[in-house]
Amino acid sequence: MTTDSPFGRALCAMITPFTEEGALDLDGAQRLAGRLVSEGCDGLVLSGTTGESPTTTDAEKSALVAAVREAVGDRASIVAGVGTFDTRHTVELALEAEKAGADGLLVVAPYYSKPPQDAVEAHFREVADASGLPVVLYDIPGRTGTRIEPDTVIRLAEHPRVVAVKDCSYDFLGAQKVLSRTDLAYYAGCDEHNLALYAVGAAGYISTVANVVPRQLRSVLDAFDAGDTTEAARRQQRATGLIELMMSAGLPGSVTAKALLGELGLPAGPVRAPLRPAGREAVDGLLAAYEEFTAG
């Protein structure tokens, strides 16, 4: 089991701000990144699922990394999402992210084509071989249709640049199996698992909900590290209502996070099609859950 956290403990899967016309809002991204870091985020994951990576261009992805790097300097790590369903394209994005100033690469399992496990493993090895940056394996089979099986993760852990996992598998036994047999840094990718995985040796979390409550989510880990496990559990439980509405109420996290950030007067802007903005009823429910959570 490892306790090393190569990119920090509390990471935010940051939304990608757009202007009202739908263009990339680099100024907004810099302002949001600065706020997240000042509120306790050790690292920022850009162009992931929450960052609407399927709808941003290669040039926009690189520009986003460069702008956020300029904004946060060395105060936080930057992990760039570069995963696609095309190994060659993923390698190209990895090299561009390295040039733009990223500290690491988030590489999702190849989606849609449903490659078998030997092909999944070969994909990750080729990407890890291509640049000098450390790689975070992103296991989210509910979106990709392809699992990175625990045995595949264990084999990939032998690669010197495969250093971490973002886990959205909902396979707690599989996570513990990898934790017990590798030195990989495990990051919870589903906010309801932040404390549970941390308690069995994970490095921390990569959180969508942290876009709106970064300080409060970090306090869960802080309480656990201070030895007050009862308080850590209380804080995690208090976040349940907001987590549920943001992540499990029928709308993607990018939609709910942008809706709340917009209501709070923070950089966000619209989502890009095919996603659509949250309706008024959903926004009101999100805002009520946010206010209840932050009032305590």
Oligomer: single chain
Helix share of residues?
A: 40-55%
Tell me the span between the first and last alpha carbons.
35 Å
Using only C-alpha atoms, the radius of gyration works out to: 18 Å
Order of helices and strands: EHEHEHEHEHHEHEHEHHHHH
* Low-pLDDT regions: none
In which order are the strands of the major sheet placed?
1-2-3-4-5-6-7-8
Structural class: alpha/beta
Q: How many helical stretches?
A: 13
Taking all residues together, what is the mean pLDDT?
97
Q: In total, how many beta strands?
A: 8
Largest sheet: 8 strands, parallel, barrel
Q: State the shape.
A: globular
Query: Could you tell me the strand content as a percent range?
Result: 5-15%
Describe the structure.
This protein has 296 residues and is of the alpha/beta class. The chain has helices at residues 26-38, 58-72, 87-100, 117-130, 141-144, 150-156, 172-181, 194-199, 214-225, 229-238, 240-247, 253-263, 280-295, and strands spanning 10-13, 43-46, 77-81, 104-108, 135-139, 162-167, 185-188, 204-207. Strands 1-2-3-4-5-6-7-8 form an eight-stranded parallel barrel, surrounded by five helices. Helix 6 (150-156) packs parallel to helix 7. The two termini are 35 Å apart.
